Amino acid sequence: MAEFKAIILEHHGATAVVRLNRVEKHNAISRQMADELVRCLDALDADPDVRVIVLTGAGDKAFCAGADMAEAALGRYADADAEAPPIEGGRDWAAQAAVRLVRVSKPLIAAVNGYAYGGGAIFAVCCDIRICAESARFRFVGATYGLAVGASMLPRAVGGPMAKELIFTARVVDAEEAFRIGLVNHVVPDAELERTVLEMAEQIAGNSAAAIAASKEVIDIATSTKDAGRREFEHNVALRQSEDHVARFRAAAERVVGRDASSDA
Asked: Model-level pTM greater than 0.85?
């Protein structure tokens, strides 16, 4: 398999662990990371020796901070990159990777270490099972930037009313609340997260791969609707053209770039 820079791939028996690896950026999603993640998942889905996939973040502070706003401000993200090849969902690299996560055919476990904000929270929700450390924090920030993000996926985990609250307010959800509302399956001490996840992955890998694949497909059909995903995409195509989104996104990107410049000084 090709070497990666923005992710790390490890094999533990029949379990493949994929680590988002931009620690200095709190594992924010860049175009390179999204591209590598998609290529990695393609390969793992096709590998008969891999029975379970785990997604986590490198380092001990963040699972994923969401889209790389600094990269966005430099014109290398979304529709600002006119030379980029078209992809499903436009040129939103985080959305491209999220779509690929949803389509993984094998059991996919999110090991959420630290905070999962924006696209990082969506990455976690795209996984079949979520286990988080006590330090984990979640935030669905789309409305802050004038977008509808996660509205098609989050109700599967927490129900409609709670999904509306989390998306409408864009507030932070700590690990205890995440467990209480069904956003995560389990909360464990930070030091036990990886061991717990690998033990569950090993248990899953010992069962019938064909039966699990069939069960995953049926459960996904029972709990999701393609109409919701398509409508979310259509809304965001329109919202991205609005003055409200442009102003909100520019202001957020400028704040991130300013913090990065201060930290580099």
From this structure: yes
